[in-house]
UniProtKB/TrEMBL annotation:
PANTHER family: EUKARYOTIC TRANSLATION INITIATION FACTOR 3 SUBUNIT F, EUKARYOTIC TRANSLATION INITIATION FACTOR 3 SUBUNIT F-RELATED
Boundaries of every MPN domain copy: 27-166
GO molecular function: metallopeptidase activity; translation initiation factor activity; translation initiation factor binding
Lineage of origin: Eukaryota, Fungi, Dikarya, Ascomycota, Saccharomycotina
Top-level taxonomic group: Eukaryota
Gene3D superfamilies: Cytidine Deaminase, domain 2
GO cellular component: eukaryotic translation initiation factor 3 complex, eIF3m
Signal sequence interval, chain numbering: none
Entries under InterPro entries matching the protein: EIF3F/CSN6-like_C, JAMM/MPN+_dom, MPN
Pfam family, one: JAB
Protein name: MPN domain-containing protein
Species whose genome carries this gene: Kuraishia capsulata CBS 1993
């Protein structure tokens, strides 16, 4: 007589009746997608807000990048879970029209807990809908914006991959076992990526609202001053590090040394300070000239519109 065995499939391997592709080992989240997830956490819902994750998947499936998301309504009544699949399909079709390169990656939840409903949600996005991630494994992303005392905290993101637990596929059919929502979830690393422009915008958002923020061209000057100050601080750190390495105070990092050498060799070194100042002044004059021409054209258009209205009123 055989002994019963609990069969757990490793998330980074192919599941017996699931996908044939390997689960992602690295998850990147764009800053715009993070803001959408934070906004979703304040959506009115009885227990949690869930939705679909859209993004880009690498050729081998080991890396994914979350670019967009949308909420999919659902209802939890007792032990029953109802997900509005029609809303999911319509939102996915609209997203594909605006950006055909995006693919369904998985789903998100504003509840950081893994409970009995988590497996049901995951089963829906994995294979339970006409639009699912199949044959790729689905990613599950949780976002937490409040602590146990309901205080607002910095968003905490945890990403999971899952694999079926127990008998599945032909074996489950042979044993006449109805297995829905049985998964083992394993965390995978994730990070938030953002561009320089997004980083600058976030730095302004973090400023206290009571401060008198500059407007117009002053914003560009203040931003340039802050970026130059940050760059100067980084240069000072690099110089201090190299001095310590040369003096033998610390052990140098070969990888960091090669990176510094590569960056220095890629930068122009033959430009003098006077020539650089001259180039900067020419660029500033060109920018002012373009701004002046744009202002003149706008003024002429407004004057032409006023003259036209006067002539039409007299006629």
């Amino acid at each position: 007589m055989s002994t019963p065995v609990l069969h757990i499939v490793r998330p980074n391997q192919a599941a017996p009746a699931g996908s044939s592709a390997a689960a992602p080992l690295k998850v990147s989240i764009q800053a715009s997608a993070l803001l959408q997830l934070v906004e979703s956490s304040y959506h009115e819902e009885t227990t949690r807000t869930t939705g679909a994750l859209l993004g880009i998947r690498s050729d081998d499936g080991s890396e994914i990048e979350v670019v967009d998301s949308y909420i999919v309504p659902h209802q939890q009544v007792g032990e029953n879970l109802t997900i509005e699949g029609g809303h999911h399909i319509s939102q996915y079709v609209l997203s594909k029209r605006t950006n055909p390169d995006l693919a369904l990656l998985g789903w998100f939840s504003t509840s950081h807990e893994l409970d009995a409903y988590t497996g049901l949600f995951h089963d829906f996005y994995s294979r339970g809908s006409s639009i699912s991630v199949h044959p790729h494994p689905a990613i599950h992303l949780t976002i937490q914006t409040r602590d146990s005392e309901n205080n607002i905290i910095a968003p905490k993101l945890i990403s999971y991959v899952a694999s079926p637990v127990g008998a599945s596929g032909a074996l489950a059919a042979h044993l006449n076992i109805e297995k829905v929502g049985s998964y083992a979830f394993t965390p995978v690393p994730n990070k938030v990526v953002y561009s320089t422009a997004e980083k600058t915008a976030l730095s302004w958002i973090k400023e206290p609202t009571k401060l008198a923020l500059p407007t117009g061209n002053a914003v560009e000057l203040v931003t340039l001053s802050q970026e130059l100050g940050s760059l100067s601080g980084l240069v000072d750190r690099v110089l201090a590090y190299t001095d310590k390495v040369i003096s033998g105070e610390i052990q140098g990092d070969e990888k960091l040394g090669r990176e510094l050498l590569s960056q220095l060799s890629a930068k122009p070194t033959s430009v003098s300070a006077d020539a650089l100042e001259k180039l900067f002044n020419h660029h500033t004059q060109d920018s002012l000239l373009v701004e002046y021409l744009a202002s003149s054209i706008r003024t002429q258009l407004e004057l032409s519109a006023k003259l036209t209205s006067i002539v039409q009123s007299e006629i």
